[in-house]
Amino acid sequence: MTNVIEATNVKKLYPPDILAIDGFDFQMKEGEFISLIGPTGCGKTTFLRIVAGFEDIQQGQVLFQGKPVGAPSANRGVIFQDIRLFPWMTVKDNILFGCKSRGMKGEDQKKNLKETMELMQLDNEALDMYPDRLSTGMRQRAGVARVLANSPDILLLDEPLNSLDWLTRDYIQTTILKLWHQTKRPTLFVTHNIPEAVFVSQRVVVMTARPGKEKAVVNVDLPERRWELRRDDQHYLDLVKTTSRLVEDELSKAREVEKVVGY
Amino acid sequence: MNENGKIALRVAYPQIFIWASVAIITLLPDIQAAAIETKLPVLAFLIGASIFLAILSAIGATNKVAKLRLVRVLNFYDICSIFLTLIFFWELLANKIPVLDPMIFTCPTRIFQALVNKRDILFSSSLSSMFLLVNGYFYGIFVGIVTGIVVGWFKSLFRVVYPVAKLIAPIPPVVYIPFALVLLPSVTYAAIFIIGLGAFWPTFANVCFATHNVDRRVIEAAQMLGAKTSTIMRRVILPFVLPELFAGIFIGLILAFIMLEVAEMVGASSGLGFYLLSQRLLNHYDVVSAIIVTVGILVIVCTVIFDYVEARALRWKVRLGA
Questions:
Q1: Per-residue pLDDT tens for A96-115?
Q2: Is B322 inside a domain boundary?
Q3: For a disulfide at B42, which of A231, B112, B118, B272, Cβ 3.0-4.6 Å?
Q4: Nearest CA of chain A to the CA of B227: how many Å?
């Protein structure tokens, strides 16, 4: 079986001289839920953007489903931290934007809309509203719905839960977990929240300080029905501790790098 | 003075000037008596205005008017006050006591008389002018929007075209009239071309610049949802630049009106600009004033339609509580 993502020796340089990623190797198998974690500026978001097709690389190779990643496409759905709904479209038009862009039939659109609405708990009233009038939590739910309506082959989550209140955060987390459990759709989750990374994923990839590469992989051998996991589960807490130590190591290095660069 | 007293004064002020105007028009002898055939139009206008404002204030007094509505209504009264004061003093100084030159500053009585007497030719001239304006304007802004988006989207094109456009745009389109008259098949085409050019530049400049500075994050969102470039241009960039677009096409509308009058004065054989020039040569300043009033009305009508369309198109921008 080929890997969904197969990245070898990736190097990404932001001109003129910011080396974001250097010599990064990464594999994601079919059906995996992987979290990417590391100190700020380690290139975890950059890597997600490379997979999404927003960034080019200077060296190495990134394969998606066995082919080099090209321009952004509907089979790689991105859920952004800043949500990025189109403010001039109602929630409904936002959700259906992808379907319409790809020329989906009217009935299929309706079916997709209904499914994602139910999944993300969006009611009819919200559908006709403009994003500016929604709460942040509602907006992010619409943001997730918009991507899910497109049925992508992979979900790329770029710190999507950061700006949310605790309840919404928990709700979206659970929804994403249940959805993954049902569909086994490969999911790449970028975050700097260590407990969250451990809680949701099967593997946590810890990246080094900039230039980012793989530092360690933590295998999270917790039961799959993760939303039923208690937050005070001892094994879970141990894993969080292990991961924390790995990240803290890099954090101090990151500070040194910043000193050298002269921040 | 308390709040209600102030409101009463603002409501009463236009009425005072209406009836003062009616009084001087009917009671004092006319200096320009020879040119006045009928005073009916101006009196009908004044009394009509009085009744309209009275009904408006009666509705306002009986209903509980919301604060915001009240402010708007009172603003309307203030605007009426300015116009009615102008009419009063104009009539007084030009037609009742000899202060203004009666040939150039004909009086409101004669302007209203001219508006009624010449209504047919004013109407047909307006239609002819609006035909040119609508054609020129819509060609101008359409080309401006399409080229603006395309030039703004392609970075290399933008870097070359935008500086050049910035140099050429300030040249007033009227200077091209000699070429337009020679190169285009008829005066009508030349006029449409000049009007279109007037509308084109501000539209193009605004759309082009706004497209160039479009939020990359929104484009990325559209791309990852599977939208093609053509879809992105139509459904993402166009709405994204809409606020700047409307700012541009509003300046375009004003410029189009200016170009319209200039073009009609230079080459046309119909339309308000042509009519105005011909009446000026005959020293018919009452008709000239009536034409100016007509142009004013057309501009106001176009602006009101424009504002309505803009508010509809940008309703997603209206936030709660705004």
A1: 999 999 888 888 888 889 98
A2: no
A3: B112
A4: 5
Contacts within 8 Å (CB) and 24+ apart, B153-161? B153/B211, B153/B212, B153/B229, B153/B233, B153/B237, B155/B212, B158/B208, B158/B212, B161/B208
Q: How far is A72 from chain B (nearest CA, A)?
A: 5
> Do B126 and B111 reside in the same domain of the chain?
no
Looking at the structure, do residues B91 and B229 belong to the same domain, yes or no? no
Residue B103 lies in a domain: yes
For residue B312, give the chain A residue with the closest CA: A88
Q: CATH number of the domain that B278 lies in? A: 1.10.3720.10
The residue among B64, B94, B117 that closes a domain is: B117
Given a contact cutoff of 8 angstroms between Cβ atoms, the answer to whether B208 and B165 are in contact is yes
Predicted complex ipTM: 0.89
Min Cα separation B94/chain A (Å): 54
State both tokens at B131.
């035909």
Contact between residue B81 and residue B14 where contact means Cβ atoms under 8 Å apart:
yes
Q: Closest partner residue to A82 among B217, B223, B317, by Cβ?
A: B217
Please check whether residues B124 and B259 belong to one and the same domain: yes
The two three-digit tokens of residue B149, written as one number: 């988006």
Calculate the alpha carbon distances from A201 to A2, A41, A95 in Å.
20, 22, 26
Chain B CA closest to residue A97: B225
Same domain, B301 and B218: yes
Say whether both B89 and B192 belong to one domain: no
CA–CA distances in Å: residue A165 to residues A78, A172, B177: 21, 11, 63
Q: Answer yes or no: do B223 and A98 touch at CB < 8 A.
A: no
Residues B50 and B131 occupy one common structural domain? no
Same-domain check for residues B306 and B181: yes
Indicate whether B34 belongs to any domain: yes
Sign of the four-CA dihedral A160, A165, A166, A170? negative
Residues in chain B within 8 Å Cβ distance of A82: 217
| Co-location of B199 and B174 in the same domain | yes
Domain boundaries, position B18: 3-117
Report if residue B180 sits inside a domain.
yes
In total, how many domains does chain B have? Answer: 2
Distance from CA of A98 to the nearest CA of B (A): 5
Whole-structure pTM value:
0.84
Residues in chain B with CB shorter than 8 Å from the CB of A52 are: 220, 224
Digit-by-digit pLDDT tens for chain B (322 residues) are 677 888 888 989 999 999 999 999 999 999 988 889 999 999 999 999 999 999 988 887 777 666 667 788 889 999 999 999 999 999 999 999 988 888 888 999 999 999 999 999 999 999 999 999 999 999 999 999 999 999 999 999 999 999 999 999 999 998 998 899 899 998 899 999 999 999 999 999 999 999 999 999 999 999 999 999 999 999 999 999 999 999 999 999 999 999 999 999 887 788 999 999 999 999 999 999 999 999 999 999 999 999 999 999 998 886 544 3
Q: Tell me which chain A residue has its CA closest to the CA of residue B218.
A: A84
Report the run of H or E that residue B207 belongs to, with start and end. Answer: helix B187-212
Among the three residues B97, B117, B137, which one is the final residue of a domain in this structure?
A: B117
B40 CB near a chain A CB, below 8 Å? no
